Amino acid sequence: MSDKLERERAEVAESAAERRTKLLQVASGAVFLAIAAVVVLIVLNASSGGSGGDTDLEGGDEVAESLRGIPQRELLLGDPEAPVELVQFGDLQCPVCKGYAEEILPPIIEDQVRNGEVKIDFRNFAIIGEQSAPAGAAALAAGAQGRGWNFVELFYRNQGGENSGYADDAFLEAVAEGAGVRDLARWNRDRAKLTAKVEKTTQEAQNLGFEGTPSFAIRAPNTDGLKLLGTPESTSALEAALSEAS
């Protein structure tokens, strides 16, 4: 066999080996991605399955401390005589509402609301799913015992996957208990009767032209009735609207 033929065969063998190596690398990558996808699905199913929410709640003490000393009446937070009223139409299952509760509204609550300049009226706008209305009624029932905003805030801190079935009776009762509702028997009786009020405020939001949650409006000395804000994107945007209206 000539040296030239031997070199050609060696080159062919080397090329084939390189192709096999590349194919193995691609296959290994595909297997890794497939395994990763399965792990993600398992985690998602575990965290947002339809078997009810986790009743071992987080954030109860922090919520209680953030609201301590601020007057509450039903789902109105702040001094009832405050000159500026910020109306929030929200759905307890709404993940964007959760973000507003945790990031956008706290500075306003700690400043203008605590100082008696602004009051915030949470009104249910139940549009996410079938558990939204019962959750809203549960918040109203907590409000009847002076713990409405504690319920709303604690619910958002422990919110599950959207429309995953987590907001069942056991979860709602755990939120009520964590929010400081003292008479759970009364709370259960009240929430069974308050779905109609949730439907009323949902219809109100729709009549105002709102299509998503959260949506905001202001009533103040410098507004002609209820001034619609839509969904301001930041705390500063909300603060500017409040300042302009006051």
Walk across the major sheet and give the strand order.
Answer: 1-2-4-3-5-6
CATH class of the largest domain reads Alpha Beta
Mean pLDDT: 85
Order of helices and strands: HHEEEHHEHHHHHEEH
Helix content: 55-70%
**How many E strands?**
6
CATH architecture of the largest domain: 3-Layer(aba) Sandwich
- The CA-CA distance between the termini, in Å, is 98 Å
Strand content: 5-15%
Largest sheet report: 6 strands, mixed
What Rg, in angstroms, do the CA atoms define?
A: 27 Å
> What's the domain count?
2
What is the CATH topology of the largest domain?
A: Glutaredoxin
What's the name of the CATH homologous superfamily of the largest domain?
Glutaredoxin
Q: Name the structural class.
A: alpha+beta
User: Which spans of ≥5 residues are poorly predicted at pLDDT below 50?
Assistant: 19-24, 26-51
| Shape type | globular
**How many helical stretches?**
10
Offer a quick outline of the entry.
This protein is an alpha+beta fold and 246 residues long. The protein contains ten helices and six strands; from the N terminus they run H-H-E-E-E-H-H-E-H-H-H-H-H-E-E-H.
What does this molecule look like?
The protein has helices spanning 3-48, 60-67, 95-104, 106-113, 132-143, 148-157, 169-178, 184-191, 195-207, 235-245, and strands spanning 72-73, 76-77, 84-90, 118-124, 215-219, 226-230. By secondary structure, it is α+β, with helices and mostly antiparallel strands. The protein folds into two domains: 1-48; 60-245, Glutaredoxin, CATH 3.40.30.10. The chain has a six-stranded mixed β-sheet. The longest helix has 46 residues, at 3-48. The radius of gyration is 27 Å and the shape is globular. The termini are far apart.
